[in-house]
Amino acid sequence: MNYKFNENREFDIIAIGRACIDLNAVEYNRPMEETMTFSKYVGGSPANIAIGSSKLGLKAGFIGKLADDQHGRFIEQYMSGVGIDTSNMVVDKEGHKTGLAFTEIKSPEECSILMYRQDVADLYLDQSEVNEEYIKKSKVLLVSGTALSKSPSREAVLKSISLAKKNDVKVIFELDYRPYSWNNAEETAVYYSLVAEQSDVVIGTREEFDALENRTTEGNNEDTINYLFKHSPDLVVIKHGVEGSYAYAKSGEVFRGLAYKTKVLKTFGAGDSYASAFLFALISGKDIETALKYGSASASIVVSKHSSSDAMPSVEEIEGLIEKNETISVG
Ligand SMILES: Nc1ncnc2c1ncn2[C@@H]1O[C@H](COP(=O)(O)OP(=O)(O)OP(=O)(O)O)[C@@H](O)[C@H]1O
Ligand SMILES: O=C(O)C[C@@H](O)[C@H](O)C(=O)CO
What we know:
33% of the residues lie in helices and 21% in strands. With 331 residues, it is an alpha/beta fold. It has a nine-stranded mixed sheet, sandwiched between helices. Strand 9 (170-174), helix 5 and strand 10 form a beta-alpha-beta unit. The radius of gyration is 18 Å and the shape is globular. The two termini are 25 Å apart. Residues 205, 239, 241-242, 244-245, 259-260, 262, 264, 267-272, 274, 296, 299-300, 303 line the site of adenosine-5'-triphosphate.
């Protein structure tokens, strides 16, 4: 089964949200207290997805706000260097700083992220800085959930969604739930459900859909799709970590993607690499089942490497892994 996009557009995908800095532990398999060296990469879920899809050959653009500092300039240079259109990345003039994410790799199974996101420039994107002429040039608007956590970024994203819908641009909502960005779980559920109900495609982990539904215990995928298919979405992708992922189409078809065996270095970056390759495949006209394979293969490559953005694979690497067909059977 294929998913249809408006073919007649200059951009395949425009992402909106944060473009930040990841500082990944160079000495790993130890707690961060004992890590003395960190490597710098561009980070932030929607930036990672734009980078991954641009490296795979999609024409990508980005809407966001960068700090007027060395980090902001590094991000802009890296993103334009991998082919992303940065013309709608505005520079903050009020002294807000770039968001930082320090990663801790205690073991392949035990990884965490320490984020510095107080007053970060990306959350100051204003609705007046979202341009209809730009959005209407794309097949897809990719929205990241964290950008909904604070105003004025929240209103900027809500405006981008209504402009996308007006101009027949598919809205893809990557839940990207970071609990510490939000005041409380009820607030998250209000905005997540509002946006999910208006989106065409929703992608997230089981835990992220639980946050959307304001559940304190694990929900089930059937209930989630019964709810979302009463609204705009016609494709819902639910990820279950190493157990793989499911794509549910409103027409009733269900597809499963298995994870591929790999030597895991760290677990973060899985979701962003998955989304970029899944969307690349879908937008390139591959069927949903194949797109799940692309997402899973890309994620298994990125979890074996040091970064989330710089490690995004090529089409050849992804197809090579799919060809080997060494899947993980759990669950
Ligand atoms: N240990 C692993 N080995 C191989 N593939 C994996 C592993 N963990 C996750 N994946 C792949 O990555 C996909 C996305 O993983 P997951 O469900 O953990 O997303 P996520 O929580 O959004 O990731 P992130 O940790 O980046 O936030 C899975 O569906 C699976 O295909
Ligand atoms: O999304 C972030 O802000 C941090 C990411 O760049 C980081 O690499 C990660 O968590 C990916 O899942």
